[in-house]
Amino acid sequence: MQIKLSGHHVEITQALHDYVHDKLERIERHFDNVTSAQVILSVDKLSQKAEATIHVAGNEIFADAIDEDMYAALDALIDKVDRQIKKHKEKLTDKHRGEKARSYPQP
Question: Which residues form a coiled coil (predicted)?
């Protein structure tokens, strides 16, 4: 997976770089078809913002998180992306099994 990490009004230190890469490895463990990820870290007065766009086979997943601490924002971001990846994977496996998504309860 290719990871593009950039910062707006924040310097990307080696520690931040390593932290983002370690966290994104968790995403790769859950879903193999992740092609690339773009992560943008920004600072606006007292809030730290992390946002990510993850490109997977046939889809693009976006999430963002804001916190007072950059590491906490990154943790929240990865949790959101992880949830979306799992949901995307479930949709794909349902389609491959030939099952149709039903919005009404079965009797």
Answer: none
